[in-house]
Structures are given as C-alpha cells and as structure tokens.
Amino acid sequence: MRLFELKPGNDSCSMRHSHEWPLIVYIVGGKGMLHLDGTDYEIEAGSFTYIPGGKNIN
After folding, report:
1. What is the pTM of this model?
2. What is the count of structural domains for the chain?
3. Please, are residues 53 and 20 in contact by the beta-carbon 8 Å criterion?
4. Per-residue pLDDT tens for 49-58?
5. Which of 22, 23, 44, 57 is deepest in the core (most CB within 10 A)?
C-alpha cells in the first residue's frame, strides 16, 4: 500500500502510465479526475476504483 499526495490545482497530476498488475485506489481526501484508458471519471474522498492491469492511467 502506498499513499500519494497531489497539490491542489489543475496542473497537479501523475504522468500517463500503466502497470502489469491491477490496482485498487482509495481517495482519502479532496476530489479530482481519473483518466482511465481514454475515459474521465470524477473521484472524491471516499471513492475507490479498480484499475485492471495493462490499462493506461493518469
């Protein structure tokens, strides 16, 4: 398990990447957008996502 913290604002993001393994992401605080394989999803505190292995995310 890892904890990531992003700065507030539109310019705060992770670079597009993928993993061979699946991920489960839980949002601890704030809100934002998850870009998963070409589709945007709104996320906020209390949300979680399942990301299958091999999918492009940022």
Report:
1. 0.71
2. 1
3. yes
4. 899 999 888 7
5. 57
